[in-house]
Amino acid sequence: MSTTDITPGLPVAIDELVAELTLDEKALLLEGVDSWRTNAIPRLGIPSLVLTDGPHGVRMVRDDGGAFGVGDSRPSTAFPTSATVAHSWDPEHARRMGAAIARECRDFGVDVLLAPGVNIMRNPLCGRNFEYYSEDPLVSGVFGSAFVQGVQGEGVATSVKHFAANSNEDYRFVGDSLVDERALREIYLRAFERIIREARPATVMCAYNRLNGTFCSDHRELLTDILREEWGFDGVVMTDWGAMHDRVASLEAGCELDMPGEVAHNREAIIAAAREGRLDSEVLDEAVRRMLRLIERATSTAAQPAHPHDPAAHAALARDIATDSAVLLANDGTLPLDADAASGSLVVVGELFENMRFQGAGSSLILPPEVVSPRDAFDRRGVAYTYARGYRTLTAERDAALEREAIEAAKAAGTVLFFGGLDDFEESEGFDRAHMRLGAPQVALLRELLDTGAQVVLVLFAGAPVELPFADELAAVLDLALPGMHGGEAAAALLFGEANPSGKLTETWTHTAADASSAADYDRGPVAQYAESIYVGYRFHDKAGTALRYPFGHGLSYTTFEYRDLDVRVSGDRVEVSATIANTGDRDGAEVVQLYVRNNDGAVFKAEQELRAFTKVNVVAGASERVTLSFDLADLAYWDVADHDWVLEDGEYEIRLTASAADIRLTAPLVVDRGRTSRSPYPADVDADYAMPPPGIPASFPALLDRPVSDPGRPGRLTFETRLADATRSVIGRLMLGAVLARVRKQFRAAQAMPESAERDAKLKAAHFVLRMMPSMSLRSLAMSSSGVMPYSLAAGLADLAAWHPIRGLRRILGRPVPLAPAPVTAPIEEPTR
Ligand code: BGC
Predict the structure, then answer these.
(1) What global pTM score does this model have?
(2) In this structure, which residue's CA is closest to atom 6 in ligand 1?
(3) Angle at 531 between CA 526 and CA 532, to 5 degrees
(4) Which CATH number, 3.20.20.300, 3.40.50.150, 3.55.40.20, 3.30.420.40, labels domain 12-303?
(5) Whose CA is nearest to atom 11 of ligand 1?
(6) pLDDT in tens, 795-809
(7) Per CATH, is 561-678 categorized as 2.60.40.10?
């Protein structure tokens, strides 16, 4: 039952319902009945809620089909993904997109949209960066907040995810993110904090991983002390799908809803703990009240008239956002192409020209009603071109015949447009990239095309940075990122100069993954040491002086902008910075103006500069506009680990108005004298190691962390919390992995056997996503996320068997009561070597 079928609100007051509900019903209310609905209690007129992904469209699943319904959903608008929208630097786009998605939610009867994702892009290899906004917390927070306001303004609830420090996919189910208190506050929690305080999301989704040793689902400091007591969150915390760890501890920590649920074991744990007095009845009742408030809110809005959903308007919005978000990374003047001059000698190479990659893979995968590829858009314009496919996606094999055809065509060409990028087998939720390169067939072909002497323009489709070793030989690089279903229109409009590129990067493009700020410890194992602390992205590179491919905030235009007449005023606690932006070229265009503040030279280690405000301004050719950007003096504060609070230091700062983090146009001093004299809260070795961004893992990292680095356990053993891929020395682990993979391989092969079609593509990608994700799952995450397909008793029994507790294991598997019922082992237990 969806909330659209019921009368507004709840039949009686929430307190009365709490008094009426039985213990079993309370436990039921706090979990899903399947992947996408919560339990209803019809006896008391309490309806279920419908929840769906998110974030760049509504994924209303038709048939769960064992892969969370990925690849089998009802048609809906595929907007540009979050990483793309952020490149616009215009949060109004996130707001408009959120409102449009919410209107589609209302059509489908969706109550809660599982979005936005506001995790920090800690490393370019994270497979899920395309779903996040930025490496910078201000950009992430501003965009996330606008998106939430857009969605909730139309009466649909949001779920801000994944709370918190969820920065990789390879270890997401079992990993422990070790983050020092200051980096946590300044970098990883800051976007969440802004969104909670400013946009009041109805729900928050906790992450799979552990944070400093405790699973996020059970993390009281995170979910109660910080989220509710400090920031004032008054909604519901739900788990990510299968992220529940210890059901009773999670309730005490402030996590109400267990999704996708249908885990009898957890329900029983609540009931037993309540009966035995181990779970305070007030804790349980408060969780139930919060769920009922969410249901009441959702049902009340569902009964109100919705704005009509206009598919054509949404498609146009997707196109406009994509156009405004594309980033011109390089240009020697070849772009824009003159459609007339190009006709005849324009050669287009690359499968993505006709089979555009417009979104990422995984739980966010949308099936749009139509896709407009660059080829469609060229044809609509009557552009004359010769097309050669050149390479195939979804394979690492080169195709000699396709390459020959492309090279022959290039020889006769004036300009070659090469459409390249990543495919869904390379970049996806569920696993991380192993490197930052484009696929081997594309790299080889690009090399050969450049060797013909042709002028090559690279048009890129990728959700995260890629290596461009040949960048200096390219005539231009236009990055569409993952532009949504009408990305082809955006590409054509920009290539032919109908629109002027005005996007800028919200993540740094290093030359290789080895240059990334977290390269010292990324995906090395289940224990992730965030040893770079606050030095994430440009905060690292600006100070370390890393040679970069493209800096944070970089993006070119077909026109030029001059910055002048800087004026800085401090009024009360607010700093107002104005300047004139003049369009000195001959085309109308928009400029993204960034305001960084260079930090004081105090005793506390700081990044060289930090983004404090930004704006985007349209300026007609030859004209100029006055812009004003502002921030609170309090924004300059750092998180002090002795005070456990924000501290503003006195000293000399510098206002920098820039066109990118590396392109500083105007500066002015800013003296702060209403703060506190600078003094370091750290031990001397931390101060010494962190005065500059650390190139590796400093010896003082445990001191910075204020706790020992956790032990990753003995490799190769199977425990309840081991990735199946890592249980290589356990027979049961290997059998388990083999069994789950066999099941998904079948789905993959079935998809492969289908005739070429969009449906085949979607099914193939969905199966591949699960296939690649399975090895990262643990027995626990499998049991928790399978909606009953892998019963908890079986998973726990297998963990017992692997730990050489055969009797207990068999009893569990057979569903018999286990006498002492200890929790399944989470610490590795050594198997005797035979
Ligand atoms: C993802 C979430 C998503 C959920 C439901 C999880 O695997 O991490 O972002 O909302 O699945 O599809």
Answers:
(1) 0.96
(2) 241
(3) 130
(4) 3.20.20.300
(5) 241
(6) 989 989 988 899 999
(7) yes
